[in-house]
Amino acid sequence: MRTAEEWNAYYTDSSFEKSFFYGKSDLGCSCGPDGTGFRLWSPPAQAVYLNLYRDGEGLPAFRQVAMEPGEKGVWKYETSEDLHGVYYDYEVVIDGERNRTGDPYAKGAGINGQRSMAVDLKRTDPSGWEKDRRPPRPVENIVYELHVKEFSWDASSGIPKEHRGTYRAFTYTDSTLNGDGIHPTCLSYLKNLGVTYVQLMPVFDYGSVDERKKDAFNWGYDPVNYNVPEGSYSTKPGDGTARIRELKEAVMALHSQGIRVVMDVVYNHTYHLDSWFQKTVPWYYYRTWEDGTVSDGSACGNDVASERAMCASYILDSVLYWAEEYHMDGFRFDLMGLLDTELMNRIRRELDKRYGQGEILLYGEPWAAGHTAMKSGAVPALKKNLCFLDANVGVFCDDTRNALKGSVIETEERGFINGGEDCEEGILWGAAAWCGPASGREFRAKAPSQIITYATSHDNQTLWDRITDTVPKDLWEKMNRLCAGIYLTCQGSLFLLSGEEFKRTKNGMDNSYCAPIGLNRLDWKLAWENRGLAEYYRGLFALRKKLPGLCDKTKDAWTRIRGAKKAPGLVSFFVDNEDENGSARWKTLFLVYNARKEAAPIALPEAKWEVLADGENSRLWEDQEGGSGKVWPREQERGGKGGAGKAPGYGVLILGSRRQIDEMDIR
Ligand code: CA
Q1: Whole-model pTM above 0.70?
Q2: CA of 105 to the centre of ligand 1 (A)
């Protein structure tokens, strides 16, 4: 067998792609009543054999056939038989070595993804699937990050035992706390909360969990079969069609409640280097350094070579497949900084072509875990290269996150809410979603559509753990509300880890990827006990949808923010909140983020200012709509002459006026 360096030289030679680039999207297995076809791309193979099995594991092949070599390094086998539900794998002979491999393009698989499965996808559609529609585009992207098993594992979820921790749990639209019939959990809770997207942590087939073990747990960032759903969330992991049907059912159930679905995708690395990729086209899909050592910018043992033509096609086709076959409404790219900007933009263009501009959400982590051997000339999709990405490719904004509560790595470091110094500038840039003049900062976004504004995700400590670690007990809840009040009123799309709104804790653990499900599961009792905080989030979500000045995703949205002021622990600004049709109730907003203990004096331009939310109550705007709202300054805030008042300490204050911002004297 050739060495990695020799393979690399072979693929890098310009004649390779000229001879072997295969542009059609028919690789893998297609199957239906009229017959079944298998196609595998393996230019270096001397021979390829197809094995057919009755089961996903165990019994030997009932048939082996030699595949025919075809154009561009594609091996083919076609039969008039309908092989739906038949499992298969390949034996590929390269440089005289014969290796068994699954199909990298498989759309179905047996238990633990070891054997691929021929599947007629039509026969996996749940009833009603043809009527499933993407919910209308929401006024704001409010993304709730969820792990399938964590979601319903706990008995408090009220989901019947046999469906806890599975895709099926999503099909219960009226579950309640321990089945008490009163307090909503799971999907009914989410609907009530007002989030507009659920981001499912990996639901493609990953390798770190034995699908037979019901209580095994992993986040799932270890892909085995990119185009097959994970089996451990299925009620029948051994039946390759069940996982497909059940994931579709989950998507359909979310859609039925008006919630869109984002899929977390991990194209930057595979579980092992010894993957189907490697076994079919050695070293083509992976990056190596000049001396042949394996590039490991993912810190997971390998980096997928997204810049290679067939690899880029693979990733693109995979995304399009999930969008089309599973009705996914968005994609979150893990370690997007390991992929290249050209590919991300191409995925954006192809999705736009099929579904409309920006209709499918696309965003990712604009960083890597280490250096990667990306081919020279390719531009990594890192934060510093945001200017090379389409305005509708977004990134997680760690700058806003860190300005809020301090670095997630240097946990001694504090942010704006927990007593950090010099965070005000970052908070203000965060408010404008890092758009506007670029001077004095590392990067600039083209538009708020490029920014995911968030405080916590599955990585690092939960917000509650971080707060309880860094501030005195009597301030815990206040600080959580302050944090939510800030980032949920910043421009950009909004994102939160499930349970952030009800004080989710992992006992301080900052990386629970393989911790027991008992630590990771959502505790629905906590959601009830901490309903005050959850209600505060809920009010902010609802208010947000009424504030076009913050939801605006166009490139000039940042110019809506005016009269920004900062002082240690204090940030304030006005927002032009007019919408296109001039129908916004509040034409101008005034926001104060006060992280000081003391109330802060505020002087406002002459106008009637209605109180929309403060550090205690995020639903005061409802009183305004109902005609019973209070005008600023309220009794408790009167401090100065005329209209002057004080913004209470440790909280946000959100005011709205019906006067247009241009009619006001804002300095
Ligand atoms: Ca699996």
Answers
A1: yes
A2: 15
Q: Report residue 268: phi and psi, to 5°.
A: -75, -20
Ligand 1 center from residue 167 Cα (angstroms) = 14
> How far apart (Å, rounded) are the C-alpha atoms in residues 297 and 382?
13
How big is the CA angle at 500 (ends 496 and 501), to the nearest 5 degrees?
105
Catalytic positions? 334, 365
Task: Determine what percent of the chain is predicted with pLDDT higher than 90.
Answer: 93
Of the candidates 228, 282, 273, 303, the one whose C-alpha atom is nearest the C-alpha of residue 42 is 282
Q: pLDDT tens digits for 448-464?
A: 999 999 999 999 999 99
Q: Report how far apart, in Å, the C-alpha atoms of 320 and of each of 263, 357, 528, 533 are.
A: 12, 15, 39, 38
Distance of CA 266 from the midpoint of ligand 1 (Å) = 14
pLDDT digits (tens, 9 = 90+) for 481-524: 999 999 999 999 999 999 999 999 999 999 999 999 999 999 99
Whose tokens are 């394996």? That residue is 294
**Element at 654 (helix H, strand E):** strand 651-657
SS (H, E, C) 413-471: CCCCCCCCCCCHHHHHHHHCCCCCCCCCCCCCCCCHHHEEEECCCCCCCCHHHHHHHHC
Residue 552 φ/ψ, nearest 5 degrees: -55, 125
Q: Are strands 570-576 and 588-594 parallel, antiparallel or unpaired?
A: antiparallel
How far away, in angstroms, is 113 Cα from ligand 1 center?
6
Token pair recorded at residue 160:
């019947």
- The C-alpha angle 437, 441, 446, rounded to 5 degrees, equals 45
* Confidence band for 118, pLDDT divided at 50, 70 and 90: very high
Distance 286 CA to ligand 1 centre (A): 22
Torsion from C-alpha of 126, 218, 463, 525, nearest 10 degrees: 60
